[in-house]
Each structure stands twice: as structure tokens, then as C-alpha cells.
Design a protein that fits this description.
Number of helices: 8
Strand order of the largest sheet: 1-21-20-19-18
CATH class of the largest domain: Mainly Beta
Oligomer: single chain
Shape: elongated
Largest sheet: 5 strands, mixed
Length: 481
């Protein structure tokens, strides 16, 4: 007989040992990498809280938005799954630099290096996040699919990088009028004109100092030596910061005394751009603003990136910090949240003309005016259907005696795309219908943006006609007036 099996009671009493649960551990390298990605946004949050709404809140800056987006971006960079870093990186690259650049625009001097770190660091962190997420996603793909994915991402990154570096009713029937000029158009020559755009001339009272749009989107000054027939001009000098900046500055209008300069700019604030690259974002937002304004009838971004008129004064031989014309006491009511540009002023200084896309017009760009009566400017008034139509009318320049306006329009029935038209004022002060200025001013190309010397003897305009040096050149004709 087999002896009975006796259970080992010690085994029953032996404690049951449970395997310890594995603790969630973040790899130190991953934590360090994510911390680097989050760093610019953390710094932005700290700086936002340090400066407060008093510094950050402005026409285009928001303390709340900057703080919330900085916090959200930092948390996403730290905790988002690797695959989500791709959309997070793209979103922060497109949105955050503009938000930070505008929010910190009025930061004090001591904070400017920190602002630069936040602005450019956020771009680099965003690109790094996209690359990190892409590498993580590609690990699970086949070799062929991985190659295609890498190629697509590389192209996108190159395009984004290139963009960042680069930042561093019907019309009334027309007639043909006598243009007021009697000689053939003459190019101002290679000292003034280049392969870039030269246009929109304006003169001081003596007719010998000319401010004009140069180098496509800057403002230059040149001085006439001798007679007009000799065509001797000093080498144009760019009127640098704070006038010409990384933003678009065009359409100068100099006062007769030469001590006040009006011009059109897309800058968001009065101070010079201290962050090369911010202008690229502002210009892009301007395109968005234009699109939404056309579709919705109002500016969803408060005019950000759109054209406004700015003014600077010559003080002790230096141009002052430009001010938005709305901030200047006693100035005409020009700027709105729509495109407002191409300002000109009558010789007596009592009537202003400009171009605007504001509501209440007849087309896209319309011509508006305001008169100064007893020291006060009247509300903006549309020049009416005899001048404005469904096409674009812009750049209205009064003759020195105030009897006529020379206007640029792309309405059908002209000699080319843009033509120069004339309207005259009757005894009651009413403007007549536009009449095409005809040759030699208008031809088969774009002829636009006329201007007069103060004595009314020389008429200038820009044109891309044959015989020039580049995109648009300045040309002149002699007047019989």
C-alpha cells in the first residue's frame, strides 16, 4: 500500500508574491527633446505674464490669446503623441510667430532679445516637431512608402523654409480728352529707372526734389541737377527706416515744404519692424483679410495687413517715427479697416483725395475725398458714379490749379490695361465724367499713377511700355498748360 500523500502545510502558509507593476517611465532623451520643442512657448508664456496686458494688448495684439496659445503649444509639444507632432508643428509654424510678433511688438528694450528667441525659436521648434513626428510615423511604413513620405515631407519643409527666409453697375461711357501734354513721353533714364518698379512721383514746391516708389516696395528720393531737358538726377537714395522697412511702403506724397511725408504702408504699428520675417506673416494675413473682406463685406482681422496712410515729419534732418494718419490731430478721415491708399492733397492743402475699398462705393477701389472747412475735415465722401465704376479707380492726382483730376482706371475701352483718365470740375465744383487722356500718355500696356510738377509744366507717370528698363519706369511729358 502506498502511503497517503500529506499536503505540505507550509506551502499553504507561504505568502503569494505579486509581480510589481511596471512604472511608466519617460525616456530621458525623449523628455529632453520634447522640452527643447516646448521651450520657446514656455518662454513666451512667462514673458507674456511678466509684461501683462498693458504692454501686449493693442490694435493687433492680445494678452489672452498669446497666453492661451503659448500654454497650449507648450503642453502639446511636451505630451502629444509623436504622430500628432506633425499637425501641431504645422499649426504653430503658421500661427504662433505672427501672434507673438504682434503681441510683443511694444515690448521694452530689455525684452527684445527674449522676443527674438521666442519668434525664431518657435519657427525652429515647429519644424523640428514636424520632422520628429514624421520620423516616428515612417518607422511603421514599408521601405517604398517611407521613401515617398520622406520626399513629400522634405519638399514641404523646403517650401516652408524658403518662405521663412524670403521674409527676411457699369462704368459711364468714356471719351478721349486732350491730356494736357504736347510732347512725346520721355523715359527718365537709367539713373532713376532700374529693372525693378519705379513709380508714383511726388515733388517739393520747387519741383526739384522728387520722392517716388523704388525697388518695388520702398521709397526713394532724388534731386534734379540743372534743367529737366538735361535729365540729370542725383543717384536715388532709399529713405530708410523708419520710412522704408520690411513691409510694403509705396505711394509717397511729399508736402510742398518737404517737411512732411505721407505714404502707404502695410505695417501693423508705428514702430519699425524689429523682427525680420514678421512682415511675411503680416502680408499673408493681409491677403486673408482682403479675401474675407471681399466675401463677407467686413474685415475679420481688423484691417491687419491692409494698406493704411502713414505720415512722418522731418525734424532736425531726420524723419520721425511714422504715425497712422488716424492718430494725427487735424488730419483728414482717411484710414478704415479696409484698404486705404494713394493719398494726394490739393495745392492749397484744403482737399484730400484717396483710394479705398470701404463700403459705400461702386466697385473694388473707389475714389474718395474730404474738404477742410473752417479748420475741420468733412466726413469722407465718394466721388460718385461719374468717376467711380465697378472696376478699379485709384491714384487721383489734382492739377496744381485744382481744376482737374488725373485718375488711373482699368475700365474697358481704354488703350491698354491701366490707363490714365481726366475729370474736370465745373463752376459749381462738380466733377464731370472721366475721359481717357489718350496718347502720348496712354498706350497698349499699363500707364498709371500720374503726377505734376508744382508749376504744372511737367507731367509724370509710370508705365511698362517698350523702351523702358524694367517692370515699371517713370516717364515724363511736357505740358502746354
Amino acid at each position: 500500500m502506498r502511503p497517503p500523500v500529506v499536503a505540505d502545510k507550509t506551502a499553504e502558509k507561504a505568502p503569494i508574491r505579486h509581480r510589481p507593476r511596471a512604472r511608466m517611465r519617460i525616456h530621458p532623451r525623449r523628455l529632453a527633446g520634447r522640452s527643447v520643442l516646448a521651450a520657446p512657448f514656455v518662454i513666451s508664456l512667462i514673458l507674456t505674464l511678466a509684461l501683462g496686458p498693458g504692454t501686449i494688448d493693442s490694435r493687433h495684439g492680445s494678452f489672452i490669446w498669446l497666453a492661451v496659445v503659448s500654454l497650449a503649444a507648450a503642453l502639446l509639444m511636451l505630451g502629444a503623441r509623436a504622430g500628432l507632432l506633425i499637425p501641431v508643428g504645422v499649426a504653430t509654424f503658421l500661427i504662433f510667430p505672427a501672434l507673438a510678433g504682434l503681441g510683443f511688438y511694444f515690448a521694452p528694450e530689455w525684452a527684445l532679445p527674449i522676443v527674438a528667441i521666442v519668434f525664431y525659436g518657435s519657427m525652429l521648434a515647429s519644424l523640428a516637431a514636424v520632422l520628429t513626428g514624421t520620423v516616428s510615423v515612417l518607422r511603421g511604413w514599408s521601405r517604398r512608402t517611407r521613401l515617398i513620405g520622406v520626399s513629400v515631407v522634405a519638399v514641404l519643409v523646403l517650401l516652408i523654409g524658403f518662405a521663412a527666409v524670403r521674409g527676411f453697375g457699369s462704368s459711364p461711357p468714356d471719351q478721349t480728352a486732350t491730356s494736357g501734354v504736347e510732347t512725346a513721353a520721355v523715359n527718365l533714364g537709367p539713373v532713376i529707372n532700374t529693372t525693378r518698379r519705379e513709380s508714383e512721383a511726388s515733388f517739393t514746391a520747387d519741383g526739384r526734389t522728387m520722392y517716388f516708389n523704388c525697388d518695388d516696395y520702398d521709397i526713394c528720393v532724388s534731386r534734379l541737377i540743372g534743367r529737366w531737358e538735361q535729365a540729370q538726377w542725383t543717384t536715388p537714395e532709399i529713405v530708410g527706416p523708419p520710412i522704408s522697412t520690411a513691409y510694403i511702403e509705396v505711394e509717397p506724397w511729399i508736402s510742398p515744404a518737404g517737411d512732411r511725408l505721407y505714404f502707404t504702408s502695410t505695417r501693423p504699428f508705428g514702430r519699425d519692424d524689429g523682427l525680420p520675417g514678421l512682415s511675411t506673416y503680416v502680408d499673408a494675413l493681409g491677403r486673408i483679410t482682403l479675401l474675407t473682406t471681399d466675401r463677407l463685406g467686413h474685415s475679420v482681422l481688423g484691417g491687419l495687413g491692409e494698406d493704411d496712410i502713414w505720415v512722418s515729419d522731418l525734424i532736425d534732418s531726420a524723419w520721425s517715427e511714422p504715425r497712422n494718419l488716424n492718430d494725427v490731430s487735424g488730419a483728414p478721415p482717411v484710414n478704415t479697416s479696409f484698404f486705404d491708399h494713394c493719398l494726394s492733397v490739393s495745392a492749397d492743402g484744403n482737399q484730400a483725395f484717396w483710394t479705398s475699398t470701404r463700403p459705400g462705393g461702386f466697385g473694388g477701389n473707389d475714389l474718395w475725398t474730404s474738404r477742410r472747412i473752417n479748420g475741420k475735415w468733412t466726413p469722407a465722401q465718394n466721388l460718385g458714379s461719374t468717376i467711380n465704376g465697378p472696376e478699379s479707380e485709384h491714384h487721383s492726382i489734382p492739377t496744381p490749379d485744382g481744376s482737374a483730376l488725373y485718375i488711373t482706371s482699368d475700365r474697358p475701352g481704354g488703350f491698354g490695361a491701366d490707363d490714365i483718365y481726366i475729370t474736370t470740375r465745373d463752376a459749381d465744383g462738380q466733377w464731370g465724367r472721366l475721359a481717357n487722356a489718350g496718347p502720348p500718355v496712354n498706350g497698349p500696356g499699363n500707364d498709371r499713377c500720374g503726377s505734376w510738377t508744382p508749376d504744372g509744366k511737367i507731367f509724370l507717370f509710370d508705365s511698362d511700355r517698350a523702351g523702358g528698363f524694367g517692370s515699371k519706369d517713370l516717364w515724363r511729358t511736357q505740358s502746354w498748360r
